[in-house]
Amino acid sequence: MHSFLLFSPEVAAARTAGKPVVALESTIISHGMPYPQNVHTAREVEQVIRDAGAVPATIAIIGGKICVGLLDAQLETLGASPDAIKVSRRDLPYVLSQGRLGATTVAATMICAELAGIEVFVTGGIGGVHRGAETSFDISADLQELAHTSVAVVCAGVKSILDIGLTLEYLETHGVPVLSVGQPGFPAFFTRDSGYKADFQLDSAEEQASFIRTKWQLGLQGGVVVSNPVPADEAMAPDEIDSIIAQALQEADQQNVAGKQVTPFLLARIKELTGGRSLATNIALVKHNALVGARLAVALNHKAA
Ligand code: PSU
Ligand code: MN
């Protein structure tokens, strides 16, 4: 086993028993939602996964270890700590070797999940190609990770802070399939419809698991995006969220926000500008993704590699 990995007792027991495990990221906790709703939501999301017959493994970097599964106290520390570092692929060696507190992005969580032998990972939204990327070159490392690392990522699509069309083009170029659940369209995080279609609609966990197994059995390495729209009664009004996103983007531009600060800046501004209503939608969609991810992990577990 990899010397950097440290499994929680719950996850270690699940591995021994051959139970399905679902990875969860921690940047959504440290940089995606405010305290204390972040910790509360993280616990609720874990419980959704347990109730659906799988075991949650929230991943973070603590004390020079990749912690796979967090104790309550660790989750609390991470959620309450203002100086947890946002850790993507580039940052992993620094945060581990310096013993810093790190919250893993989609990219870093995929790396850690693969090291830990976990095939399914649930999040809210993945990173992507930013609007204006033709001049800023701002393309999330999440997309390269999906190209190379063999983990299925359940999400509610990408926020329209990004260029959704270019994000899908990038994924196509790198051979990353985009599945949708319950509708043909690719969802836009706060809303169910991005105006773009997913590649393949597969509604049942069994079909999704067969697709994913087939890809990996063919030797086609890399991830699969399983896009799951926010439940209709929890979605935001498209007009409202679009104008708020436009304002947040303009402010980021005026304030010269760059690099890894861009996504957290936009997420925080959107929350403020919606008076916190975006947070309720965010929490609802993550919990819904947890249910879909747990069912997928159970189905994949029945089709052992
Ligand atoms: N998108 C969201 N919520 C999030 C993130 C993205 O809707 O919390 C986080 C995820 O951890 C994702 C990261 O991996 O932001 C992407 O950051 P960047 O764009 O800097 O690669
Ligand atoms: Mn970026």
Describe this structure in words.
- The chain has 305 residues and is an alpha/beta fold.
- It has a single domain (2-304), classed as Indigoidine synthase domain (Indigoidine synthase fold, 3-Layer(aba) Sandwich), CATH 3.40.1790.
- It has 13 helices and 13 strands.
- It has helices at 9-17, 27-32, 37-51, 72-80, 92-97, 106-115, 133-136, 141-148, 164-173, 205-217, 238-254, 262-273, 277-302, and strands at residues 5-7, 21-24, 55-62, 65-68, 85-87, 102-104, 120-122, 152-155, 178-180, 185-188, 191-197, 200-201, 224-227.
- The strands form 2 sheets. Strands 1, 2, 3, 4, 5, 6, 7, 8, 9, 12 and 13 form an 11-stranded mixed sheet that branches.
- Helix 10 (205-217) packs across helix 13 (277-302).
- The chain starts with a strand and ends with a helix.
- It binds pseudouridine-5'-monophosphate and manganese (II) ion (MN).
- Manganese (II) ion (MN) binds next to loops.
